[in-house]
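cache lookup: miss for this entity combination. No prior model stored, computing from scratch. Input as submitted by user K.M.:
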Amino acid sequence: MTTIASLQIGELAYISEESLDEIPLKLLEMGCLPGAEVELIQVAPLNDPLYICVNGSHLAIRKETAAKIKIIKAK
Amino acid sequence: MSHKKTINVALIGNPNTGKTSLFNELTGLNQKVGNYPGVTVDKKEGSSKLQKNLKAIITDLPGTYSINPTSLDESIVLKTLLNSKSEKKSDVIVVVADIENLKRNLLLFSQIKDLEIPTVLAINMADQMERKGITLDIKLLEKELGNDVVLLSVRKEKGIDELKKAIVNTYHSAKAFPLCNVNNRIDPAYFDRLKEINPNYSIYELWLMITHNSFPDTISREEKSALLNFKNDSKNLKKYQHKETIFRYQKINEILKNTYLVDRSKASDLRSTLDKIFTHKIFGYILFFAVLLVIFQSIFDWASLPMDLIDAGFANLSSYVNKNLPAGVLTNLISEGIIPGIGGIIIFIPQIAILFLFISLLEETGYMSRVVFLMDKIMRRFGMSGKSVIPLISGTACAIPAVMATRNISGWKERLITILVTPFTTCSARLPVYAIIIALIIPDQKVFGVLNLQGLTLLSLYILGFATAIIAAIILHKTLNVKSTSFFVVEMPDYKLPSFKNVFIDVVEKTKAFIFGAGKIILSISVVLWFLASNGPQSYKDVEKNITENVFHQQLSQQEINQMIASSKLENSYIGIMGKSIEPVIKPLGYDWKIGIALISSFAAREVFVGTLATIYSVESDDEDITTIKQRMASEINPDTGTRRFNFPVGMSLLVFYAFAMQCMATLAIVKRETKSWKWPLIQLFGMGTLAYICSFIVYQILS
């Protein structure tokens, strides 16, 4: 399954419609919506948390959360 | 419509939008920090003149991304907004947004609008538009939103007057209608039934009451139980909240499509360059530890001079009052209870202000979020969150503001562990105690030619404090059975130059909050201790007579006799009796009843230890100089062994005791307030006390 947790640094993707129920409300509210563009900017040492840019918001989220958000990779 | 002379205005907005800067700009230093009724979060209020004859009381609500709360700070926003029918309701709400994240900021705006409260949208950081390649059609946006919109640049002091005008206009027109009508889009039948419960409230308000179990006082019991019935289907609630958010963003995208344009090619890449350095796997940590070193170094270097001055100033004031006011109980209360009590609070101001200065700078620049990002995984292994780093650093000045700084940690267990272990970090009140004991038992010599042995001991105590905090956290993490869902999301704001005004006001406000919060407790305990030390049973009252009679035939100067009286009075006072009664318990640690008194007094604040010993060893108060106390302590003999009382084993045992024991009433009170129960402060008191006792016992028994 492709999720935000499987992105490489600098890689772009779109959040998939199917993960809507999995995304915590807080993240939705911060712009992490289905269809939104997401880019992995940086990974913290020890590989967690992840620093992403989604819908123009720069956010740090934990890997466990990122692993719940399915994506479709940009071509 | 009646026009009051004073109206209530609430500022609400995402973190990092410059909301607090705007608050500072509107109110200046006309601010006060109060409490929200029934909750622990500080309420920041200030007044601002909107126009002739019209003043506004402005409330700065905690920063939040939405009115659906996930932390204590954020739940305040919801509570305040739901009380829209009460006396203290907001007449106008100003939603502060920043131009770069306008889309996300409008989500909060759309939620507020649906509460049907008159609202002004203030878009800040307009000066950044060009640099970020943003164009905005204000007129069209106002039309689409059906709401007043003001462009601001708080840092450049632009747009403030326009905002004031817009607040006044909005207040007079009292326009209030929903923006999104979410109910029609999700499940109209469900929401229609909801509306029937109390038509005075907007559907969105009723919906928020259900989803967050937060009911204003104006809701009757029947209405409340009817609302709770709607809650049963909790799966749908969550689904509806998701749908609601998606719908809001659809609406926002529609509105912004023609009004807000971003040319990404113009965006600067300063941010990504700095991020690469600050969050680098190696340099990131090196830089962070360098920052910490600078902070600790400055706390010591910059604070020592003002602290010495304050110490000397209060000692002089005390003896001045003693000499110049008519002798009596009242004078004693002032000179021995109140003045040293206030001095004991004021002395912490330099260190605390310097620490707040650094924390404020790190937060203003945006660096603190990077630290949270760097440290989260490591801290999680100890059951804490990346956000726990800030309280742990603050704890090196004082545990009280540190405990308050845990409020933005959303997981209850992570927050609780942070609160529980923070008092292990070496706070500034321990320093005077460490300083005098180290001076007594550790020789002032260099090892390896460069390192000072005394300094090294102090450093080890700091490391001991941090290490114990971490170990305690690991144990709590494994043993605490607390239900908590931890959710972690941190915004990484753009880097900014700090504004001098914001930093200054922040430091002043936080320091004031410390003085009035902790100060009250420290002062009242000082007064209680003074009473216990200057009153006693019959034997206390007889001291003067007995000594004067007994020493009559000896060749003693008046000063020596006075010292004997003071010392003997203390021995027979209530506190002396308390010290003697705990002597059997503390004897295995190497302490006598005199040290026992000092331990009891330390509950006001640990540094009282030094002053108490000074009184016990009857050093005259007008030369309350550390060398004199030190000499007196050094020459104190243990009658059982005939050796020095403060020898190496006793000194080490005391150092360990002060490192571990929870000897601070003010911190216990704050922990009670923040955890809303006596359970946790009591666990801290007895847990840390037991640890201190056992470790000091082992240290003393091994060394002696």
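stored under new cache key. The CA atoms of residues 5 and 67 of chain A lie 5 Å apart.
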